Amino acid sequence: MNCFESLNIKPSSFGRRVFLSLLLFTAVISLPALTPGDELEVAVVQFQVSSEIIRSEEVYYDALDRAMAEALKDGPADLVVFPEYIGVFASLIPWYPYLRNQKSFESVWAGVRKDHPDLRYIRDLFIREAKRTDAWLDKIWGELAVKYDCYILSGSRFNGRRNRLYNQAVVYNPKGRVIYRQDKHFLTEFELQILGLNSGSMTSATGFDIKDYHINLTICRDTFLNEWEEVLDEGDLWIDIKANGVEYTEDQEELFTRALPARLGNTEVPYGITACLTGDFLDLFWEGESSFIYNDSGRIRYLEVSEETDSFEIIRETLP
Fold first, then answer.
1. Does residue 27 register a pLDDT over 70?
2. How far is the C-alpha of 70 from the C-alpha of 47, rounded, in Å?
3. Which strand (E) or helix (H) includes residue 26?
4. Which of 210, 218, 229, 196 has its CA nearest to residue 273?
5. What is the pLDDT of residue 102?
6. Residue 130: what are its φ and ψ, rounded to 5°?
7. DSSP 311
8. H/E run at residue 109
9. Which end of the chain is more exposed for a tag (fewer CB within 10 A), N or C?
10. In the structure, how many helices (H) and strands (E) does the chain have?
11. pLDDT tier at 3 (50, 70, 90 boundaries)?
């Protein structure tokens, strides 16, 4: 589930992290002044997944509830952002018995196919679970949005429509209602060939509004394609949710700069967020650097960056 696979991009010989202190300093001194009460408080959850969270619906919900509590322990926020794929794991809760004694994705699928010959492809399993999972996720995310009185971008899940399967992000308002859905458009080879996903429409990616802020959204590999610069040229915030399924090396650090930082600088959108999934699941794992960035007339400045790239972390920022 690596959103960067099949991209032919040459890495830099050095990383950004050595310059982080200078970037943070120059970002702060060049930001516009805040107007109390009008700003947007945003918390990003760099969620750490494991096979244990799908032992039951109760365990899964508790993991999300604890993440929300941690995100808001230093004060309320208008919006809490979760990363790509977090909702996909909920689809596998009924199949947890197959995971308990297995160590690889392939061995689990072999066991499922043996007992369920009607499931010819992996997508068949996810399509079977899609309606139930979507309804249940709407219920629990809605409850969390009401409980914590905020908007929640709940990462992404697999949504099934007319025997087609999409990687879909969903947003909830403080009343617990779904206000926005967006399907991933540019899919990875894994999503196309192994999972059998279908592409969403770029024209339906209209974004959503909180207070007086218009927020754009792209899902992982989408953000590498400059076609989005025309579609999402205006707005106040651009969010990129990711599940980067390779080790976060210096090369990957450079690769991340070719996603949202490269897109944002060619638009009129002033702020950007990258939210990354971390953790491991069977023989799969995810690492990445979550961040807030500022588009200073085409120059990208980093306002906040996660300290770790392979574990749970919360980063927050107040946007004017």
1. no
2. 11
3. helix 20-30
4. 218
5. 76
6. -60, -50
7. S
8. helix 105-115
9. C
10. 9, 15
11. low
Pairing between strand 271-276 and 278-281?
A: unpaired
Q: What is the residue type of 143?
A: E
Any idea of the CA torsion for 242, 244, 250, 254, to the nearest 10 degrees? -40
Residue 284 DSSP SS3? strand
Cβ contacts of 133 within 8 Å, gap of 6 or more? 87, 90, 91, 157, 158
Does residue 54 register a pLDDT over 70?
A: yes
Nearest to 166 by CA among 91, 62, 235: 91
Query: Using CA atoms, how far apart are residues 257 and 272, in angstroms rounded to an integer?
Result: 12
Is residue 9 pLDDT above 90, yes or no? no
* DSSP state letters, 105-170: HHHHHHHHHHH-TT--SHHHHHHHHHHHHHHHHHHHHHHHHHHHTSEEEEEEEEEEETTEEEEEEE
Instruction: Record the tokens describing residue 83, joined without a space.
Output: 């990363």
Q: Summarize the chain as % helix, strand, coil (round to 5).
A: 35, 30, 35
216 close to 207: Cβ distance less than 8 angstroms: yes
> What pLDDT score was predicted for residue 38?
84
**Amino acid (1-letter code) at residue 20:** L
Question: Residue 16 contacts by C-beta under 8 Å, 6 or more apart in sequence?
Answer: 23, 253, 254, 257, 302
Predicted local distance difference test score (pLDDT) of residue 138: 98
> How far, in Å, CA of 167 to CA of 134, rounded?
12
pTM: 0.89
| Order of all β-strands in the sheet with 151-161 | 178-183, 164-172, 151-161, 79-82, 40-46, 313-319
3-state secondary structure of 49: strand
Q: How many residues does the chain have?
A: 320
Lowest mean pLDDT segment, chosen from 93-102, 212-221, 273-282: 93-102
- Which residue shows structure tokens 């959503």? 208
